[in-house]
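User: Second chain of the day. Same drill as before.
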Amino acid sequence: MATFEPNSALGRTPDNYFAGVDFVRFFASFMVVFFHFAFYSGIAEEYPIGMRAAMNYNVVYPNLVPYSWWGSVGVPIFFVISGFVISISAEKQFPMHFIRSRLLRLAPTLWFFASLSLIVTIIYISQFDANLFLLWAKSLILFPKGPWIDGVYWTLVVEISFYSLILLVIYFDKYDKLEVYATIICFISLILVSINGIGRLLAADNYAYNVFHEFMGSYKSRITLLSTGSYFVVGVLFYLFYQKGYAIKRLVVFIAAVVASEIGIYIEASDLILKSRLSASPVIPCLVWSGAVITIAVTAAWKKISRRGFHWRVRTVARKLGLVTYPLYLIHFVFGAWIFGILLRGGMGRFGALAAAIVICIASSYFFAFYLEPWIRRKLGALFDRFVAAASRSLAFSRFT
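Assistant: Same format as last time:
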């Protein structure tokens, strides 16, 4: 969330490929999958239609709660990776090239698994519901306002918000001002999450604070990057460090973005603990997120120092995991839960069903990433190029191309 853009095509090792980033990305995706299956299934009434029917409401894993409840922090990790990878890949691109790269990366997998989720949902409700096709259509275009056919798509819409900002920067030829815009987003996020955090400590029963707190935890604050912007900024700052080096002002912005991110993660974790009546510390997801950020930083530093990065065998494994991550994220929440439910009703034990469902999701993602997605991407790329060529002949597309 997720970004799921492997920062290299398999078989190539360009200068901007960071193997450690793909390892972190896969780890973050696996955390989210494990969170939904091992922890979130215990509150299955919150699942969207289709997955509700697929899950067994009584499936809980009390022994796994300490190892799964914090898995949702994988999403903020995705956003950091997106800020880093997209900033690098968008540098020196024309607007239309950027649009094409994003479309070909997101659309094939999204369209395939949104359609699969539609089929699974229809099977489980055993009736025709026209509203499902509306949810499916909204999912195909990542319509800003949900719901969608799959609940995890909200993270992709947040990604699109970030992509849109990058596109505007490219379009107006202001990429050299990216640091300025990142700084603005960073300090807006820091101010808002700080107010939220201080209010939580001092005015938990205050009506005005409760309204503000609810907004900061809402989808609206996420899609506008008010509560999620700091995660992307951390990634953008990694890009700036890598390309331009360290500077005092840059370090200050980076520290501010990290602080804003940690406060946001801490508050969300506290809300989840309170809501789920857990006995846990909200510091845990903060530490996990910090570990991922440090790993990305070390990866970038090692790449800068060694110039080649990790051994080619390690890079090969990393690229494969990177390619699997995006389909894994999109397949697990509806189709994966459907498989999970089938295994449970078939008599497989809770832990066996959990392990088998995750393995099936990973294997299916691997098959799609290496055998179906490349073909779909080629076809879509050719169609897109024909469309742009036709449009260029009749319209003034020079600014974009």
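Confidence is low (pLDDT under 50) at residues 4-13.

User: Great, on to the next one.
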